[in-house]
Amino acid sequence: MQPKHLVTIADLSLDDINKIFHMTRELKSSQAEGKTAKPLEGKTLALVFEKSSLRTRVSFEVAMGQLGGSAIYLSRQDIDLGHRESVRDVAMTLSRYVNAIVLRTFTHKTVVETAKNSTIPVINALSDYYHPCQALTDLYTIMEKRETLKGLKVSFIGDGNNVARSLALLCARLGVTFRIASPKGYELDNAFLDKIKTLTKGNSLTISNNPREAVEDADVIYTDTWVSMGQEAETEKRRRDFQGYCVDAPLVAQAKSGALVMHCLPAHRGEEITDEVLDGPNSIVYDQAENRLHVQKAILKLLLLAGS
Questions:
Q1: Does 89 participate in catalysis according to the annotation?
Q2: Cβ neighbours, 10 Å, residue 174
Q3: What's the CATH architecture for 9-130+291-304?
Q4: Catalytic residue among 238, 263, 292, 294
Q5: Where exactly are the structural domains of the chain?
Q6: Which pLDDT band holds residue 122 (cuts at 50, 70, 90)?
Q7: pLDDT tens-digit map of 267-304
Q8: Among residues 16, 128, 219, 224, which one is catalytic?
Q9: Architecture of domain 134-288 in CATH?
């Protein structure tokens, strides 16, 4: 039987997404009540990370441990994926040792190739094109705060990057209106826009170059770093190009009263978001960070126990 992967949000059916959200709620509640279950006892997770990480690494390691399993961390120095050893050979070898692979990599094609050659589930923990675990966490967190996703408007201010793509795709799948404001040249790419049309029904996506226009009547304002890992050489240019796209108090005031403010972290305070907003009463940033643990436990259960 072919394993079930999470390379992009498109790999999940609506039923899968609903199961993840339902399991997340149960797992989080059980942890708060001190109840423990070990459904993944005896199973091992390989964390193959080409990029540095705080939340993703810790949340996956803790998640696997809380579910009764164990995790092995493999850094770029340990494997040097695609250089010291081919992606295919790594995927096929790990498939003989562990029960699932979590991959955090520079290029999306590495995740695709790993999944293609793996006989165990592969989870995309961030590539340069998608970040599905983050998007699932974000929509779950919004639902947790608002009790429903129906009729909500999410406005993303910043680069049309991996986080924005995954958010846009998941919002479209769940009927949530998604707006994005980016500087010219940093919008969602045409290849992605063509893809999202084939995977979703209706038009729930609005693209703009005007942050104030994008946040008008928004229920959620979301931002992310202007310079992602691997783009460090573009830092000064991006800082110039993104002037006017900082999520500050005047911008938040353009949204609905009590609009939620989100950021996937790490944040560059004073650049894409101000201290006043990040630490303010509308911010649910640390709730997002916490929920990475609970959502990823649900993802692990869904994929590792598929068919059992």
A1: no
A2: 21
A3: 3-Layer(aba) Sandwich (3.40)
A4: 292
A5: 9-130+291-304, 134-288
A6: very high
A7: 999 999 999 999 999 999 999 999 999 999 999 999 99
A8: 224
A9: 3-Layer(aba) Sandwich (3.40)
